């Protein structure tokens, strides 16, 4: 394990003591802040913190290093020598570890960079001031940058939990948990343009609100039972028309079984034919093949009424196995991942590219785009439609992919300047 200061136990005070002691020996010293406090609670579990700390272990051992873990879970890595390159590499590894956290993709304006580097020789006054402020906030109990320490990791859902959770979902007000995320078309030099919005219940918010001590996604088949209740509640929310969801094109991720329920058919009857033509029904691959006859019956009936269908949840392994037209889907949704990127851009990419091409122009959605590499993956597969937190951030800033990536890299290339002007 990386060494920690033995005393004092108040890490802010220990860090201030360290900064004061190196004031007369500043040359070739570096202090790196990793602001883990910016992460969402789901990404600040104990194992996440341990992995982030371990990333800097080699640097600490090699360069007379010290690691401080502040009360808000921020890490401070201090080392001496020609370690800047290794620090930057470790910082990039930590960024990659948390790249899927929406809290980072949607960082607030004016908030500190996730990783900040101080060159002690040049930035000492700013560093000393920052250390003093941290200690004062800690001592006075006024840590505006602190968040509550993570709760123990939630335990996997068990069959004995199912009925109580289903009852809680049935009785809860889920309106504050309903989210919308756009599926956008990306054109070179243009900001993303929404085509439709996926409407869904945020599972993480639901879990933290109703059962924070239970991981309801740990068992797919138990969660399948919960998802039927969630389908019912989502349909009831839409039927009330409490917001503007029904005024624009949108998609719903539902179970095949839900499509033939009285609740869904009542909602269908209440909609005009023009409205039905703007709605996409997303179905999970495993659910479709669990009862292919039921799917075919529902698809044939609802397609005739104007709905479009999207096969959801494909990966680099399943995309080549699917015949979109034969199954009767209008769209397919592929989840971006580092593995998909490697297979789409690597030397053996031909089969995957051919599978993407067979889906048809404009019919493949690349989802979960949380990394710049997703755009490169989409280009390799010929994708036009994208979804994910990265796309949300581009849309919010009204920036094209090229401009967004350029601005982000310019911002990340000035961490020391940002530290020096604190």
What does this structure look like?
This protein is of the alpha/beta class. It has two domains: 11-151, Alpha-Beta Plaits; 156-410, EAL domain (TIM Barrel, Alpha-Beta Barrel). It has helices spanning 11-21, 46-55, 57-62, 84-97, 102-105, 120-140, 162-171, 203-210, 220-240, 262-269, 273-276, 285-290, 292-303, 324-327, 338-345, 350-359, 373-381, 389-397, 401-412, 415-420; strands spanning 29-34, 66-69, 75-80, 115-119, 155-156, 178-185, 193-201, 214-215, 250-253, 279-284, 308-314, 331-335, 364-367, 385-386. β6 (178-185) and β7 form a beta hairpin. The longest helix has 21 residues, at 120-140. Residues 1-8, 143-151 and 415-422 have low confidence and may be disordered.
Report a brief summary of the structure.
This protein has 422 residues and is an alpha/beta fold. 46% of the residues lie in helices and 17% in strands.
Secondary-structure blueprint of this entry?
Elements: H1 11-21, E1 29-34, H2 46-55, H3 57-62, E2 66-69, E3 75-80, H4 84-97, H5 102-105, E4 115-119, H6 120-140, E5 155-156, H7 162-171, E6 178-185, E7 193-201, H8 203-210, E8 214-215, H9 220-240, E9 250-253, H10 262-269, H11 273-276, E10 279-284, H12 285-290, H13 292-303, E11 308-314, H14 324-327, E12 331-335, H15 338-345, H16 350-359, E13 364-367, H17 373-381, E14 385-386, H18 389-397, H19 401-412, H20 415-420
